[in-house]
TrEMBL record:
Keyword annotations of the record: Membrane, Transmembrane, Transmembrane helix
Record-given protein name: Uncharacterized protein
Transmembrane segments: 7-24, 44-61, 66-84, 104-126
């Protein structure tokens, strides 16, 4: 498998995991920003930003081991997913009621544990296997 194929598969797995994670953890309710019920309309922008960060990270880690690349990429994606979940919860739930910033973060962390763990593990396993192939 060529390095171009690996990069394409890496990016594809990041986009798919991002879509699954955000749609799975998105709270029920209407968005205060655009009154929509689903984050699908702007989810591609979230995925694009995550791809830019991940590809820049891969360029910086060009000479590092495969395992360190996959671990750091997964960690960056997990942090990015937490921020997306925070923005979604803030937009769909907290904007309609009274939440403190700490209350929002506690709620987001508790509701994101399962989705981030499953999607993060899937991303890690898929990309470890993709990048280890010669």
């Amino acid at each position: 498998m060529t390095s171009n194929h690996k990069i394409v598969l890496f990016n594809l797995s990041a986009v798919i995991c991002t879509y699954v994670q955000v749609l799975w953890s998105a709270p029920e309710g209407v968005s205060a920003a655009d009154m929509s019920n689903s984050p699908i309309a702007y989810l591609h922008w979230y995925a694009l930003i995550s791809l830019i960060f991940l590809n820049c990270l891969l360029l910086m880690l060009k000479r590092k081991s495969i395992l360190s690349k996959v671990i750091l990429s997964t960690l960056v994606l997990v942090i990015f997913w937490l921020l997306m979940n925070y923005m979604e919860f803030n937009d769909r739930v907290a904007s309609w009621s009274t939440f403190s910033v700490m209350g929002i973060w506690i709620h987001v962390l508790l509701n994101s544990i399962l989705t981030i763990a499953v999607c993060g593990a899937a991303f890690f396993i898929i990309n470890r296997n993709i990048l280890q192939r010669t």
